[in-house]
Design goal:
Layout (H helix, E strand, L loop, with lengths): L3 H20 L8 E4 L1 E3 L7 H15 L15 E3 H14 L5 E4 L7 H12 L5
Parallel strand pairs: 1-4, 2-3
């Protein structure tokens, strides 16, 4: 069984492999967009949604929510609408073959995310 940390590393290495394979296609006009943690309308499978589900379970159990990472860890985030705007811009103006990292200017930490989620479900976290 894989831990959440292993799943993140696995996802990142899979994305890198995909980027490398796309780069091998001769004559392909492409850009690589690496987005931070996406949040906003339509987030059904992302980190925030999973935290909401987990928090609701801790609320039901009446237990303190446990974090698997350091609560002071910074998280690169981007709102879905900002990501869509960036992709639209890059389709029109991006340099083929280039990698673009798309994140917002927030100083988001796991603690900040958990604080909001814990407030919503009236639970404690550590």
């Amino acid at each position: 069984q894989h831990s959440n940390k292993q799943a993140v590393v696995s996802t990142q290495s899979t994305g890198l492999k995909a980027e490398q394979e796309v780069a091998k296609v001769s004559g392909l006009n492409y850009v690589v967009v690496r987005a931070g943690m996406v949040y906003g309308p339509g987030d059904r499978l992302g980190y925030i949604t999973s935290q909401l589900v987990i928090a609701s379970i801790y609320n039901h159990l009446g237990e303190t929510m446990k974090l698997i990472w350091n609560k002071n860890m910074f998280v690169n985030t981007v709102h879905v609408e900002d990501l869509c705007s960036a992709i639209t811009h890059l389709i029109q103006h991006g340099v083929s073959g280039q990698i673009y990292n798309v994140v917002d200017m927030g100083d988001t930490t796991l603690d900040g995310i958990c604080k909001h989620v814990a407030h919503i479900f009236d639970i404690k976290y550590e």
